[in-house]
Write a structure and sequence with these properties.
single chain, alpha+beta, Aminopeptidase, seven-stranded mixed beta sheet, binds coenzyme A
């Protein structure tokens, strides 16, 4: 677990493409934009210099945080990496004064919905046709301790 470095970009982009359907995965441009935002921070999980996962979060207002994405390599899921990356990011957000963290996740992404629920995120409501003007999303939120 370590902070994201510019050299991680290509591997992170490839992992994001592998994690989401075409059109939903971020373009290189979008990924760079998120990483470059002044309030954004990212961390990676790696083993022997191979990227296993990463998370990007951002502080959107003084007391609100947003999870931009959390991606874990398919063959390394259910080993606690997502949980550890999220804890690292939430700790940083709390240190910045963030009280509530929100995110969007596809309604049909059962693994992600289960993951966010176990991490304490509650569904606030649905965002109809959020992805590609077609697939619905949930807006989920957690109040940080
Ligand atoms: C969602 C995702 C990030 C979870 O990462 P992960 O490293 O596998 O998650 P963890 O191992 O930390 O899981 C923590 C807990 O979340 C829950 N969980 C995670 N994946 C789950 C699944 N497929 N089904 C049910 N519960 C799940 C479990 O409670 C799990 O604890 P347990 O393994 O002790 O039962 C991963 O599946 C992923 O990268 N998916 C593709 C990208 C994506 O959808 N990201 C979320 C975008 S909103």
């Amino acid at each position: 677990m370590r902070p994201f470095q510019p050299e991680d970009f290509d591997a992170a982009y490839r992992l994001d493409q592998a994690c989401y359907p075409p059109g939903i995965a971020y373009s290189r441009y979008a990924l760079r934009e998120f990483l470059g935002e002044p309030g954004a921070r990212a961390w990676v999980a790696e083993e022997e210099r191979e990227l296993l996962g990463f998370i990007i979060v951002r502080r959107v207002r003084t007391d609100r945080g947003h999870v931009v994405t959390l991606d874990i390599r398919e063959d390394r899921r259910r080993r606690g990496l997502g949980r550890r990356l999220l804890e690292t990011a939430e700790t940083w957000l709390a240190e910045q004064g963030v009280k509530r963290v929100y995110l969007e996740t596809a309604v049909n992404n059962q693994a992600a919905v289960a993951f966010w629920q176990q991490a304490g995120y509650k569904t606030l409501g649905a965002l109809p046709r959020y992805y590609l003007d077609r697939d619905d999303a949930y807006r989920m939120e957690k109040r940080l301790p």
